[in-house]
Amino acid sequence: MKKEELAARLKQACARVTAAEALLTEIDSKFGDADHGLTMTKIAGAIAQAVDESDGGIRSMLDDAAMAVMVLNGGSAVPLWNTWLDGMQEGAPEGEEIDVAGIQAMFDRAFEVLDEISGAKVGDKTMMDALIPASQAIAAYAGEDEAGLFQAAAQAAQQGAEASKNFVSKFGRAKSYGEKTLGTPDAGATSMSLFFQGLAEV
């Protein structure tokens, strides 16, 4: 896969998140600060612009995206997404092309660094409910087709976000609502799922 295709996938992922601002706000308004939609729109816009304007290789492009997110003012999602993107660039090749093994290394490193600071596991009702299964699907992918890899990740992320309805919140403001959070998906897991769906759509 050339840098241009990866850039197109990243921009489509950002577009999916931006289009869902109202949905993410609605979900977050139930037990959170009602700012997740706005925060994720800022994050998606920053990533898309950085990707569009980057003139280096793949690592440079992802580094630009991480830096663009880092300087944003926003909710708790900002440092988490910055960390994830920063890990992604650490695992990415410097050149203009990436293969399946390269994508796997990129997402493996991204998950590794975010997992170190997050501490959340599947079942805690956070963005990790979508990211952990997506990362596992990428690592387990045995095909040679990048499109198949992203489809597997998107499916796993979507299932993870859907499953978050069945969990009680254990982090953030929503934690205080306890079992009232049952039946509502996690906003962070939903936005992460949408991002992976966008990656799979190009």
Characterization of the model:
The protein is built from 9 helices and no strands. The two termini are 12 Å apart. Helix 7 packs antiparallel against helix 8 and helix 7 runs parallel beside helix 9. The longest helix has 19 residues. The model has no long low-confidence stretch (mean pLDDT 95). The protein is globular and about 50 Å long. With 202 residues, it is an all-alpha fold.
Summarize the structure.
This protein has 202 residues and is mostly helical. The chain contains nine helices and no strands.
What are its keywords?
202 residues; mainly alpha; 68% helix
Write the layout of secondary structure elements.
Elements: H1 3-19, H2 21-31, H3 36-53, H4 58-70, H5 77-91, H6 100-118, H7 128-140, H8 146-163, H9 187-199
Helix pairs in contact: 1-3, 1-9, 2-3, 2-9, 3-4, 4-5, 5-6, 6-7, 7-8, 7-9, 8-9
Rg is 16 Å
Percentage beta strand: under 5%
**Could you report the average pLDDT, rounded to the nearest whole number?**
95
Order of helices and strands: HHHHHHHHH
Distance between the termini: 12 Å
Count every helix, treating DSSP H or I runs of 4 or more residues as helices: 9
User: What general form does the structure show?
Assistant: globular
Main sheet properties: none
The tally of strands reads 0
What structural class do helix, strand and pairing data support? mainly alpha
Helix content: 55-70%
The low-pLDDT segments are none
